[in-house]
Design brief:
Helix 2 (92-102) crosses helix 3 and helix 2 (92-102) runs parallel beside helix 4 (136-150). Helices cover 29% and strands 32% of the residues. A hairpin with a 2-residue loop joins strand 1 (12-23) and strand 2. It is an alpha/beta fold. The chain has helices at residues 52-60, 92-102, 107-120, 136-150, 166-178, 191-197, 257-269; strands at 12-23, 26-37, 42-45, 67-72, 77-80, 154-158, 183-187, 200-205, 208-214, 221-228, 240-246, 250-256, 272-279. The longest helix is centred in the middle third of the chain and has 15 residues, at 136-150.
Length: 281
């Protein structure tokens, strides 16, 4: 479905109209009117039991509405549940290869990508370990790697930060910031992802959308890659949205374009060398 709306993508990936989902006679989602456009990341927030996971399943196509209508303009959807299946008998590498090959990709390409992501998330030492023997956090990383490898149009993540330590949370945020070709819909209790990547935030209560909040301004967001000669220099500029260190010397910084020139001057004065400046979206 294509609509022309000023200032927004014209491509709608998901739309629900008065959608209600019942289990037996009990409604778990009621009268859901929701539009998700390409390139507009969406956060779903609410208390436990509010219906967040059920809404993600509706968006991903795992659920269909009992009443109302749902339209999905893409089949290229990756869904990562909050709890990774516990009794998968495959080793990590075997599982990721199997999932990748099911989508028609070459094994040689998959091996390289799996090794790259496993190093990013520090699970390279577990590639030959059975998944059922891995920790909750490690399994969570496998689910995220599986979604990233799929390069979907729509990525649906249920509490993706659960079970991850702070360093892994930062790495995930950085990877999702780079996913400019994927629209991301997620649930989260933490502000890290909401502040970092969400354009829209929807509140859910008792299976109903109760509020809609514009999360980000219409300012362009710039990504700056800088190098510090001294390891991990302190960054105290109040205009920085997010800073992610890759190693001890290279930092990726996001900032609104209106503040980018001032920040670049600040970084140079601090002794950083600037490697790249580009618009995020």
């Amino acid at each position: 479905m294509i609509k022309k709306l000023k200032g927004l993508s014209t491509i709608i990936l998901f739309e629900s109209v008065n959608a209600t989902k019942k289990v037996g006679r009990i409604p778990i989602l009621e009268n859901i009117d929701l539009v998700i456009r390409r390139g507009e990341n969406v956060a779903i927030v609410g208390e436990n039991g509010s219906g967040k996971s059920s809404l993600l399943k509706l968006i991903a196509g795992i659920y269909e509405p009992t009443i109302g209508k749902v339209n999905r303009s893409t089949r290229k959807i990756a869904y990562v549940p909050e709890h990774f299946p516990t009794n998968i008998r495959f080793k990590m590498m075997e599982y990721l290869l199997l999932v990748g090959e099911m989508s028609g990709r070459k094994r040689s390409d998959l091996i390289g990508q799996i090794k790259e992501y496993s190093e990013i998330f520090h699970v390279e030492n577990y590639l030959e370990m059975p998944l059922k023997s891995c920790s909750k956090g490690t399994k969570q990383k496998v689910g995220i790697i599986q979604a990233l490898m799929a390069a979907p149009d729509l990525m649906v993540l249920d509490e993706p930060l659960t079970g991850l330590d702070f360093s892994s949370q930062q790495k995930l945020l950085h990877q999702l910031e780079l996913e400019s070709n994927s629209t991301i819909v997620f649930t989260a209790h933490e502000n890290l992802l909401i502040d970092g990547i969400a354009h829209q935030v929807f509140g859910l209560e008792n299976g109903k959308i109760t509020r809609k909040q514009k999360q980000k301004s219409q300012q362009k967001i710039m990504l700056i890659k800088a190098y510090a000669k001294k390891a991990k220099k302190h960054l105290d500029n109040k205009n920085i949205i997010h800073a992610y260190w890759e190693g001890d010397h290279t930092v990726f910084i996001t900032v609104e374009s209106v503040f980018s020139d001032t920040l670049l001057i600040h970084l140079i004065e601090k002794g950083f060398s600037i490697h790249e400046v580009k618009e995020k979206r």
